[in-house]
Amino acid sequence: MSQPLSPQTMALVKATAPALQQHGVAITTLMYQRLFVDPSMKALFDMAEQESGTQPQRLAAAILAFAQNVDRLDALKGALERISRRHIATHIRSEHYPAVADALLPAIRDVLGDAASDEVLAAWGEAYWFLADILIAREQELYRESELA
Ligand code: HEM
């Protein structure tokens, strides 16, 4: 399990919630554009959901919910479980997570512009890995359970 986020990091992430509410889909749409430059990443996704905008909306909602609840993750338990199960169904592994970080963080910077100071981006970088570690741990458990079944 990853180290808890510091109160300062949580405050910085939480403070971006209004901007994410406004620009979340722009951020995730840009993130997917960056991610899909790599065909092996693109192949993991259902393109019909991308083109309908459903997937960017779901990811934007998840990121916003995380920003709003970063100091009380219990509120996200159900959502995290659903995401992990979806990831298992689409064969997502821990080695896929760095590419999403490399696509998401610049997308946050590009869309939020001046609102995304270096400090804010560093906080989001930490928060991404905190969330990713929770998902990865649960996904490893689910993969293990399915191998035993
Ligand atoms: C902290 C990181 C991540 C978050 C917060 C996240 C969030 C989500 C959410 C909210 C969904 C939709 C679940 C639903 O059906 O309601 C989803 C699905 C999905 N995620 Fe992630 N995800 C993360 C990392 C990744 C990574 C690293 C990959 C791999 C490149 C990935 C690939 C997918 C795929 C393939 C789907 C299924 C949707 C489709 O087929 O288009 N995710 N994720």
UniProtKB/TrEMBL annotation:
InterPro entries: Globin (IPR000971), Globin-like_sf (IPR009050), Globin/Proto (IPR012292). It comes from the Bacteria. This is Globin domain-containing protein. The keyword Iron applies. Keywords: Heme, Iron, Metal-binding, Oxygen transport, Transport. It comes from Sphingomonas qilianensis. Belongs to the globin family. Residues 4-140 form the Globin domain. It holds the Pfam family Globin. The keyword Transcription regulation does not apply. Coiled coil: none annotated.
